[in-house]
Amino acid sequence: MHAMREGFEIDGRKLSYLDFGGAGRAVVALHGHMSDGESFAGLAGRLGAGWRVIALDQRGHGDSDRAAEYTRAGYVADIEALLDHLNLDSVVLVGHSLGGINAYQFAARHPERVTAFVDADGPVSLGLDGHNPLQFIEQLPYEAPTRTELVDALGPMAAHFGSLVRERADGSWSLPFHPSDIVASENLVHGDHWADWTASSSPALLIRAAHGVIPREQADAMVARRPGTRMVELDTDHFVYAGDPDGFAKAVGEFLDEL
To answer: N or C end: fewer C-beta atoms under 10 angstroms in the chain?
Structure first.
């Protein structure tokens, strides 16, 4: 499905987003760390014209500018700014990982603007031991004069990140995220977010990856402690939209149809 790339400014920063069109109700999609709005292209295509999928490049990702900070409040404010920019009173949120956490935290703070949400493998309790699993990202090169030089500098990590590098307006090449921003953002997303998870009452779908980051006990508790929440488990890794695109789209589509 063809998407229009748009953008707007907030606090002197550009926020970029993809609007996949569609005549139906709005679905705002929020990607995870080291990704961007393009990760929801497959979902948008499978949902078809019945829904209007709008995928935000969250701060410091994709074509959106880097931010001075990556706090929980900052991410939530960006979602509110996007809805205001698009004149959307209420939407369905679909988030993966970081985006899933941002989705339920936005719902907690602005319940009147969220008719329902999907949390794809975004935990409610993480990093309490102080370990940052993305710390290794800080060692990655960020930019180079040519694509070849940047991919070569990535070394073994080129297999994971080489396809993401992009050309900038000045002809140089960079990753679609700054490694130090990712580490800072991961540190700031850690915590006990149970109060946010249980603060809203709109319908919710939890998509748990069987080989992902949400322990089974935590996932069961997320469903039990929040009325109106149901769970679908997919036999794939954390990146559910890529590991099982059909299963991911089916789970989201059936949930949306129920609304």
So the answer is: C
How buried is residue 24: exposed, middle or buried, by Cβ count under 10 Å (0-12/13-18/19+)?
A: middle
| Domain extent for 223 | 4-125+191-258
Two structure tokens written together for 172? 């140089």
From residue 208, alpha-carbon distances to 1, 23, 78 in Å are 26, 29, 26
Given CA atoms 9, 11, 16, 18 in this order, what sign does their dihedral have? negative
User: How far apart, in Å, are the Cα atoms of 82 and each of 11, 93, 125?
Assistant: 13, 12, 27
H or E stretch at 112: none
Tell me if 172 is assigned to some domain: no
Residue 149 lies inside a defined structural domain of this protein? no
Contacts of 160 (CB under 8 A, 6+ apart): none
Model confidence pTM above 0.90: yes
**Encoded tokens for 194:** 């149970």
Establish if 215 belongs to a structural domain: yes
Question: Where do we find the tokens 């850690």?
Answer: 190
What is the total count of domains within the chain?
Answer: 1
pLDDT tens-digit map of 34-57: 999 999 999 999 998 899 999 999
The reply to whether 152 falls in a domain is no
Domain holding 72: CATH number?
Answer: 3.40.50.1820
